[in-house]
């Protein structure tokens, strides 16, 4: 069974840091692109960052560039999103996704996790 399981969300003050994780299982993801999306209440799902499992090239949304870092640990089959200088507008449910070839749009991904809540207080 293919599965993505997110963890690490929580409540943090503005300016703080948080790391969310995505553990992948059930298949080989080496040909996949792994991504993080987020969705705030009343808003559409928004691309945050993506990383190619093979090669590790990354891409970020302009809104998080310079603050967030996506990375992967091949041995643990886990993708991370390190979030620094968090702002209240970063508050959302963060979803991990896997797809091929992947990209900035949610419809490019066919495997999704259940999401983890990140709340940034003022």
Describe this structure in words.
The structure is a single chain. With 122 residues, the protein is an all-beta fold. Helix content is 0%, strand content 51%. The chain has strands at residues 3-7, 10-13, 18-25, 33-39, 46-52, 58-60, 68-73, 78-83, 92-99, 111-112, 116-121. The model has no long low-confidence stretch (mean pLDDT 94).
Structural class by helix and strand composition: mainly beta
Distance between the termini: 40 Å
The portion of residues assigned to helices is: under 10%
How many strands, what sense, and barrel or not for the largest sheet?
Answer: 7 strands, mixed
Radius of gyration, whole Å: 13 Å
Please report the total strand number as a whole number: 11
- Report the average pLDDT across residues: 94
Oligomer: single chain
* Strand content range: over 45%
Label the overall shape: globular
Order of helices and strands: EEEEEEEEEEE
Low-confidence segments, given as residue ranges, are none
Question: How many helices in DSSP terms?
Answer: 0
Provide a short characterization of the protein structure.
The protein is an all-beta fold and 122 residues long.
Task: State the main characteristics.
single chain, 122 residues, mainly beta, seven-stranded mixed β-sheet, four-stranded antiparallel β-sheet, 11 strands, 51% strand
How are the SSEs ordered, and which strands pair?
Layout: E1 3-7, E2 10-13, E3 18-25, E4 33-39, E5 46-52, E6 58-60, E7 68-73, E8 78-83, E9 92-99, E10 111-112, E11 116-121
Parallel strand pairs: 2-11
Antiparallel strand pairs: 1-3, 3-8, 4-5, 4-9, 5-6, 7-8, 9-10, 9-11
